[in-house]
Amino acid sequence: MYRVKDGCPGCGACTAACPVGAIAQGPGLAVTIGSDCVSCGVCKRVCPIGLIEKSPEEDSDEKTDSGL
After folding, report:
1. Tell me, what's the pLDDT at 56?
2. Could you give the number of structural domains in the chain?
3. Strand partners for 31
4. Which spans in 1-68 are helix H?
5. Minimal CA–CA distance to 28: which of 54, 6, 43, 44?
6. CATH of the domain at 57
7. How many secondary structure helices (H) and strands (E) does the chain include?
8. pLDDT tens digits for 23-66?
9. What is the pLDDT of residue 48?
10. How much is the pTM?
11. In terms of Cα–Cα distance, which of 19, 23, 20 is closest to 3?
12. Contacts of 66 (CB under 8 A, 6+ apart)
C-alpha cells in the first residue's frame, strides 16, 4: 500500500492514473489511498513532485517475507 506525504497540491494525477480507483480526493486538497490499493506503484510514478511512497508497514512486511 502507498501513502501520500504532506504537501500534496491535489493535482489529481494519481487519482486519474490509479487502475483500481483506490485514490480519492476529499475536502480541500486531502488525498487518501484506500485499502483497496494493490501496490502497483502507478501513483508513485505519475506524481509530479514525488509525494507518494510505500507505507512503512508494507516495507516491513516485504523485509520479513524475504528473510531480511
Report:
1. 84
2. 1
3. 25
4. 13-17, 42-46, 56-66
5. 6
6. 3.30.70.20
7. 3, 4
8. 998 776 678 899 999 999 999 999 999 999 998 875 555 544 55
9. 96
10. 0.76
11. 23
12. none
